[in-house]
Amino acid sequence: MSAWLRGVVLAALLVCASVQAAESPPIHPAIQAAVDSQERPPKDRSRDENRHYAELLEFFGVRPGMTIIELFGAGGNTAEVLARAVGPNGKVYMQNPDFFYERFGKKAVDERLANNRLPNVVRLDKPLNEMGLEPNSLDGAVANMVLHDFFWLSQDVPGVLKDVHKALKPGGWFGVVDHAAPAGSGAEHAKDRDHGTHRIDEAYVKKIFAEAGFVLEASNDVLRNPADDRSKPFYDESFRGKSTDRFVLRFRKKSN
Description:
Elements: H1 3-23, H2 29-36, H3 42-45, H4 48-51, H5 53-60, E1 67-70, H6 77-86, E2 91-95, H7 98-104, H8 107-113, E3 121-124, E4 138-144, H9 150-153, H10 157-167, E5 168-179, H11 202-211, E6 214-220, E7 246-253
Parallel strand pairs: 1-2, 1-4, 2-3, 4-5
Antiparallel strand pairs: 5-7, 6-7
Helix pairs in contact: 2-5, 2-6
């Protein structure tokens, strides 16, 4: 290879590296430490490869000292990572409706929070439409692969989004991750708890958030899977060891 050609190849590699760096911002040390924590349960850490927590939390803008709510937090896997990232001066509300405990029991949550192991996590065991959040009290909100569930948990999903919007401080963010439904399908794949595919249309999500007063600030392709035809629920056997096509969106409450 000539010196000229070597120079061209090296220049191309440097450009590619620069583009990748621009597309993948560095992870805040507090987020990386939270994800890497050996105090997290082994079962939680075994799921990290398909969840990309570090990239997601960085994209949402999680930082030490923040007050964040995780909606329908279930057993608390995501809430724990959030709690470790915001640190002792931050707070995470882990919301679950009574239905979750009635169907799955409280054992997982009780064990996660036992002996004050996550002192900055506050359980919020209330329905989505009755959370009682203080206005302008939150820095951020997260719905991680559960927004589709809102449509069978609540008869007024727009009301839930408006409540969260009101509870966020000016400039606060709302991070959403969910399983993509076929384009144009709205919430039809989300409404039936027992027979639906537990997916939701990305364009529809953008629409209802805009109607609730949010501004779509950015999207991220870190969890995309173009091989998924979006026809099966996320728990289908065909996804064992694989991931659905998931969209990642960051909405913002206007600062004025």
